[in-house]
Amino acid sequence: MENQFEFIAIEGVIGAGKTSLAKLLTERHNARLVLEQFKDNPFLPKFYEDRERYAFPTQMSFLASRFKQQQDMLSKDLFRQLTISDYIFEKDRIFARLNLEDDELALYDSIFEIMTGISAKPDLVIYLQSSVDRLMENIRQRDRNYERNISPSYLRELSEAYNHFFYHYNKSPLMIINTSEIDFISNEKHLDYIEEQIFEQPIRNNTHIHIIPDQL
User: Ranges for the Deoxynucleoside kinase domain (predicted)?
Assistant: First the structure.
């Protein structure tokens, strides 16, 4: 299977399956895997308990961590031509706009604008879109302690912010996959179809893949 990319980024709301898909595609293509280091953020559990109080330190910790990873990605891997990541740097601002107060957002933006200009640019962005019910179910199944306080209303708010962001996204070719009714983790046919659309079809802007489970 011929590869036309050097860097693919997979995005989606919490629980959409972006990390799982990144890992599966990495295994199939011997790629370099770059995962968001959310476990290293000491403020994240506190954020889900008190969103207003801990939004700013949580956001700044993520910004610093993500930028460090972006710099590392700019260096070539001699043994792997393809890099697959489970986030894009620009998405950091989705959470910032959603959670920060005006003065905090102004300070954040002054730093973010410098960093985003020298971050790695994906050859393709894959946005995994999903219903809030499916997101909640996925979150319940993986049962991370600090995610137990995530509410459907917060996920709905976040989903709307993501949809708005990717509706206007034009920095890289974008592929949108609705994952509400599919299971690429357990169903290999679903994964095969996604892989085929990514690697065997010509690169295009704003490609929307709608997978019908009964037809696969």
Answer: 8-198
